[in-house]
Amino acid sequence: MGTEHVRWLAEPSLDRPVLIAGFTGWNDAGDAASSAVRTMIESWGADAMAEIDPEVFTDFATVRPQVRLDEDRNRSIVWPTVGLWSASLPGTDVILLLGPEPALRWRGFTEQVVGVAEETGATMAISLGALLADVPHSRPVPLFGTASDDALVERFELQRSQYEGPTGIVGVLQDALFRSGLPTASLWAAVPGYASQLPSPKAAMALVERACSMLGTPAPLTRLASAAAEYDARVAAMIGDDDDMVEYVARLEQMVDEADAPGDDLGTADPIDPDELMNEVENFLRDQD
After folding, report:
1. Could you tell me the pTM of the whole model?
2. What DSSP string describes 115-166?
3. Could you tell me how many helices (H) and strands (E) the chain has, helices first?
């Protein structure tokens, strides 16, 4: 694969790194996936490694560049660019990819990412996503993972996706990486549909924790923990004056608590039936078409 649209900023010495990818936009309900990757970049002090030229892949009328003024009031344009960072952690090296979902030439875009993975000797990829679902904000975030690689499914207790229908760049990139021979997993967090307008640090925290457990490295949760506590209070205040919404959330809480009751096969770590959550994903994706 080529990397003709990749601008290299550094040449880090990485040992069998794991690629972690997240995008803003369609697959990023509650900003959870992008916040998760951004948290890892900042908490790990990751170094800028490369950028993918946005000119070929971005509709600037949809994702617009931003005007910035420096301390001397000099004007500059900041383009919406997909960036890559690298970090060496206890247990593994990582490459972190973050940026807006491209609007154009997805196959050409994924070729650039596959090329980066090949040139850096990546051994696994994990993509992060978040979707809107019928889940309560006041309970643990339902999270599930899928993979096409049998070894990853068994090793990390993931599911083999049976989904058919519209997909976003997360699905396209996962397919391209897998076809290149790279074992690839995808983690998804469910965000309450009734709180879609609020960023969800709680969902981001769940994604970070699960991804880091797969990496075998400590999860940087400090920055998200306090924000997650505030999130519950913000959502509660938002719905507090709407009796119908309060009743709806109470029903969702009851469903989760009953599924999580002692003696239930699901146990405390997985209060939502994975098949039901997968159906939520499928319905969400179809609704976005």
Report:
1. 0.86
2. HHHHHHT--EEEEEEEEEES--TTSPPPEEEEES-HHHHHHHT-B-----S-
3. 8, 10
